[in-house]
Write a structure and sequence with these properties.
Blueprint: E1 15-20, E2 27-33, E3 38-43, E4 48-50, H1 51-85, H2 91-117
Antiparallel strand pairs: 1-2, 2-3, 3-4
Length: 134
């Protein structure tokens, strides 16, 4: 898979990029513009980006998705904990809840370590991470 199609530098027309729009997940096209051969991305609904903006948008979207997954796992842990604690919950259901809770908690812990270890790209002009930590 290519994010930027091979042979783009010599192409007169935009080409379909191998990455989706960071705003709407739609199809992106990419073309070369200007003397410096800057890349210009545009999706079919009109979102436009430089290469840096696509990269920063992808970093932000990845960060949001990872945090969404982590939150969903933590909520699953809380729900299975509370359901297992109810007096009216049958013993076999409590065991299933406990098993699922343990698995979800282990996955949440691994995901949190991945999130904490992930370092978005930083650009020299700002020196700041592309995505601010939560």
């Amino acid at each position: 898979m290519y994010a930027i199609p091979p042979g783009l530098d010599g192409a007169a027309d935009p080409r379909v990029a191998g990455v989706s729009c960071p705003e709407c997940s739609g199809v992106l096209s990419v073309r070369v513009e200007g003397r410096r051969a800057d890349l210009f991305f545009e999706c079919r609904v009109g979102h436009t980006f430089t290469d840096t903006e696509v990269l920063l948008g992808k970093e932000a979207r990845l960060d949001a998705w990872l945090w969404t997954a982590y939150t969903a796992l933590e909520e699953l842990v809380a729900l299975t904990t509370d359901l297992a604690a109810r007096e009216s919950t049958p013993a076999d259901a409590r065991r299933r809840y406990a098993t699922r809770r343990a698995g979800a908690q282990a996955t949440a812990n691994r995901l949190r370590r991945l999130i904490d270890d992930d370092e978005p790209i930083a650009f020299p002009e700002s020196g700041a991470p592309a995505v601010a930590p939560p």
